[in-house]
Amino acid sequence: MTEEKKTVPASVAMLKVLEAWGVKNVYGYPGGSFNSTMNALDLEKDNINYVQIRHEQVGALAAAAHAKLTGEIGVCFGSAGPGAVNLLNGLYDAREDHAPVLALVGQVPHTNMNYNYFQEFSELPMFSDVACYNRTVMTAESLPYVVDKAIREAYRNRGVAVVIIPNDFGYVQIPDEPYASVTVDDKPAPLPVATDDEVSRFLELVKKAKRPVFHVGSGIKGNADLLMKLSEKLQIPVTITGLAKGLVPDDFPANLGTLNRAASKAADEVFASADLVIALGADFPFANLVYRTHPFTFVQIDAERAQFGRHHFLDMGIWSDSGAFLQKALDMSTPAEPSGFYQAAVEDMKGWKEYLTGLMNKADGPLEYEQIYREINRVSDPNAVYGIDVGDNIINSFRFLNLTKDKKWTISALFATMGYGVPAAIAGKLAFPDRQVFNISGDGAFSMVMQDLLTEVKYNLPIINIVTSNAALGFIRSEQEDVKMNFSGIDLLDADYAKVAEAMGVVGITVRTLDELVPAFDKAVEVTKSGRPVLLDCKITKKRGLPVEELEISWKDGKAVETVSQAYQDTHKPMSVEEFFESYDGSALKPLPYYFEKFGVTE
To answer: Could you say which of 451, 547, 557, 566 has the lowest number of CB atoms within 10 Å?
Structure first.
């Protein structure tokens, strides 16, 4: 007599696949077409956590943020029809930032498909652009296999995998077998290494250059020490993309910071004068603006061949892991003579940092965003986690937030969707329960997702939520200010977000003056240490930060000339660089030609 084989509902078998891959949290909102999986989540609640968010967009963004913060796959779900559609915003964020995410999507029972059944429609086409793997499950027996395959594809492509599940399949009993393909010896794929000949040719280009500049992205990974050694050895200043913030230490004197609009003055100025740009593991969405301002020789080092020439035509491309390239360049190079260009760049950045410090320490006048970042830095733990929303808070975080390699932070970088901060903070706290977690959002972005303060309360997530509330879409306001138009659609009806928070069970604190700021942040820390979430509604001015992207560098008779863009002057008033700086409380700032003249830099 043969022993009867043990069976399990197909949805439970699917969840066991997730568990085998190390998934701890699944974000979603139930719907009738997803009930078989909801049943499985209940049966498996001791092994995997269902996190009930209040909007599918928040669930998808939380899954994306989890993947960015941990490197591990994030999982979210939505039901057929509206739930599926609501996932798209977060899934596109994951795709653009190369985050591995699995989206489980409900579908009506297979017996009702193609009958125009309630909430039934063809979901595959909707996800065809966002997903690197996109399948509808065809049999109950294949459900765990398809999900396992989807996870592998999401990791392999660092992107979004979508599995559409007809609801009735999840209830079907299938053999209880180990469907997951994960193994204990899973390891990263071998990385390409630069050849000696490539590095020799690279070093020759550096020797010929008068003003070489690194532009470094998140591909630097853990190799910042090698980069800093090479930067000093070859006298090449460093600019970074936003996602490299914190990977290259801010206190490295030759780290000039980020480019374009969310940028430092020194980075934009020095880059605009470069005659050799060395892009290292950098994916830069604003390259078509910044890289086209003037001609230069362009070298790109990247571990992914598909990236070559994506942002600028190549003079030289080196297919290599960043660490392998940097180490070989260090081994094969000889120290360069002290460079006036390098010294000028370092001094320019030093002056910029002094300017930022002065703004943060301003002790009179109205409450402004700089003092808020001063307080965030003051109360932050050395290993704090930040969920940062888009808009002016990205600019200000890059300029003022003290980000180090021991801290973790995440933004919606390339997709730049509003409403990222709350879900990112939720994911951060669930992934790192013993760390201090902040959500930093503007009032426009926060009001899109503020219902999910309820999620923070439901799961006892002691998050410090900071709303920089100026009753305007500040980032768009600045854009409209620089073109010939009246302000349109950017003013927001103000609200008492502290009271909104209190109505949801969050401790709410309104901050209106500088005198209230320090006690408010002290109270926020106290509240979160007691295990409760808190929200600081900081009523700031509409003040704009210095738009460094308007600075332009040209050459005349061998000397650098700096001007304010004609477009900016046309929409404001004619002004010198010094007048431009003064209009943003920067009278002590010096233009780049000042440093070039000081250190003897010529064309």
So the answer is: 557
